[in-house]
Specification:
mainly alpha, 75% helix, two-stranded antiparallel ribbon, single chain, 448 residues, 1% strand
Length: 448
Amino acid sequence: MYDPAIAITILAVSFFVLLFLRIPVALTLIIASVATLFYMQDSFMGYVDVIAQQTLQGVNSFSLLAIPFFILTGQLLGEGGLAARIVNLANLFVGRLPGGLSLVNSVACMFFGNLSGSAVADTSAIGSVMIPIMVKKGYSPEYAVGVTISSAIQGVIVPPSHNLVLYSIVAAGVTIPSLSGIGMERVSIDVGKLFLAGIVPGLLLLLTLCIVGLVISIRRGYPKGDPVTRQQVPGILFHGMLSFTPAVVILGSVITGFATATEAGAVAVIYSFFLGAFVYRELKFNKLWSVLVRTFRTVLMVFFLIGASSAFGYVMTTLHLPDLITQAFLMVSKEPWIIFLLINILLLILGGPMDMAPMIVILTPILLPVCMELGMHPIHFGIMLIFNSGMGLLTPPVGTVLFVGCSIGKVSVVAGTKAMWPFFLAMIIALLIITFVPAVSLWLPGLL
């Protein structure tokens, strides 16, 4: 018979030590699970079988196919030349305002994020177009990088983000006490409603970023965007709207229930390929291999992580760790707002050393029961978690979006971080509004 306290200690210590040693998160989860089960079980083959079964069970889901389809859609659109057309569309709406190029950058990132669902892809595509233009027009390179990487975070929360799909799948494996008080039940989250929940928070983030960009641009005397003639307007609108059709296909079919997220993603892949290869003819066939390689690398990483987190979650559930963590939070305070504030601080701290996908798959089974115990809706929690995790992409030592943006803008990480801070503070304000005003996330899903 094992001692639960010793098993929890082994699990926690091995996890944090391996994470500190910069071991890949998926391997960290597997090794920590194996070490704990080695103590808990007498049979060597017993814990090997458990780890293998739980890992395979974690990725044995038809819904997971939506993730590679969404990622591939974003890659195809990025190579298909849609970024420049989206920039032109954003310039049509906000380019003539003071500091117009800064606003164009933020709006274009929101538009492209609606297509790619990836902050890194957003930074690469829009940054490659906008940063050189902004520098040429007199904006400082540091500011151009700061506004780009901050605006790219919109891609993780606006639908159809594959991060929302990942959260819905992970949350579906979480068990909570039944409302009847008898037994346990699984959390159920409708992906269509989760997509709707990300729209208003995404617009709130866009508004805060635009306000900060407008104030900084006016104070520094940055110029407006390029003028648009009447003759150019129809073409810009047509190509801009045409670029949005993959997102419309996914959102419309999933929200209306006409298709599942997986089926909609498959259609979006075919349509995106047709649009980039045959309509705009910028997606060359010799680029397809690199597109597929980048997609497979991302998908394999995510799937390995999901399988490893399933094994890790099994060990945590066996040790009743989520229940113990819930009780620990409730011992700190009975006030929900204090607990929610502490959880946000915890997520902001963990966002530095952890990438986004690991945060979603590891922390959802731990924190979701806590927040639901305090009355937070699982969709509301998901938006808060993903928004907060996205902010972690801007902070070292991981800071994927930060490093990509600084590389494109050819500025130091220190300079890029300093330029990003005003926008980061605005994002914290948006995060607090999302956390403490549930209607921001739940109003649109409530209409269904």
